[in-house]
Model the fold of this input.
Amino acid sequence: MEDLWCVAGAIFQLWMVVVVFFIMLPAMFGLSLGVTGVYIQILVKILEWATIRIQKGRQEQPSVLVPLHTGIIERARGSMEEQMGQLRCPQPPAAGEFCLSDAMYFCKKGLESIVDDQVTQRFSSEELASWNLLTRTNQNFYYISLRLTIIWGLGVFVRYCILFPLRITLAIIGLSWLVIGTTLVGFLPESSAKKWLSELVHLTCYRICARGLSATIHYHKKENRPQKGGICVANHTTPIDVVILANDGCYAMVGQIHGGLMGVLQRSMVRSCPHVWFERSEMKDRHTVTSRLRDHVAAKTKLPILIFPEGTCVNNTSVMMFKKGSFEIGGTIYPVAIKYDPRFGDAFWNSSKYNMVSYLLRMMTSWAIVVNVWYLPPMTIQDGEDAAQFANRVKSAIAHQGGLLDLAWDGGLKRGKVKDSFKEEQQKMYSNIIVGQNGIGPPETCSQTKEDQ
Done:
């Protein structure tokens, strides 16, 4: 029995030496021994081989279903006016008259939305082009060969028996250090030394937590990093977005006060850094929120505010409507585009399906997190531009840089109903087509097209 305890003690000592000296200390100083890079390269080779093997298996087994990547709806392109013009071609009505075939356009759009709308699919996991050897993504792929099954079994062993305990250890160390470090720094008097220590504690703890997820982060255009007194806005896929961005700089967080473990972290962090936390009752008071954020931005010595204007997590394929409140504060906006590589794990947090603990366990048992971060040039509101237009311009820039779809839909539709303003907008568009107001005439008919030709 004593020999068993000696062996267990030796294993524990070896484990802590590896964690502290080969992972944690290099992470604290922003260094890397290159192990994660080699690990990612090996993963890429294995996944490429698996993709080729799956493709050969499909050819050998024609009965195996092939997953659809483009959806089941072939949507017509063009504006409402153009699509209605095609339906009206056989017998075009006179200008300003209603055509019964117009109803078919709205029926078609309604059925498309029921079967496969553009909002619901943004809150489900991104469809993969090929299986990444994770059980949770094996919905459309089946048994192909013995070698592929053996590789999958080895992957399960590596992820759950080696990587998972290692990541849990690093996460516990990082979070504990964050709570203890920020609490101790909070007792110091306000000074430049306190600010420096606070930023150091935050930076080192977030880097340890990132190593606990085997995160490989590629930062682009670092010269555009957010500066003090500014507002950093980014697309939102997962709560880990905060860890990803905080690895390269410190930010003042904005959010609602929580209880439990999250509440402990919030209370300890705010002691050393001017984070902006709101009570639930204050979050409903738009004026109070805007006032507190404006006061923070006015102090040019404070850290840049980090805000996710979508207000919810989207599945790494799109950018949804930005809430205009973040753009009414004033000051300089620093857009940031974040794009995760889905081959190594699904970073999207479906909060309606998984709680925070379940989600973190899924991330810690994935292969890795590989993400690209682009810092875009700072932007300010232009003359004659309101907050909503400014928000859309920033959103479009982020979507273009990250290779994401630019959607006008509100992420709040995830749990709420469509706003009346969206319905009224469609009604106005149709009424303009019928009446011909604002310079919009009736749809071009087929006979007019032929005469023009």
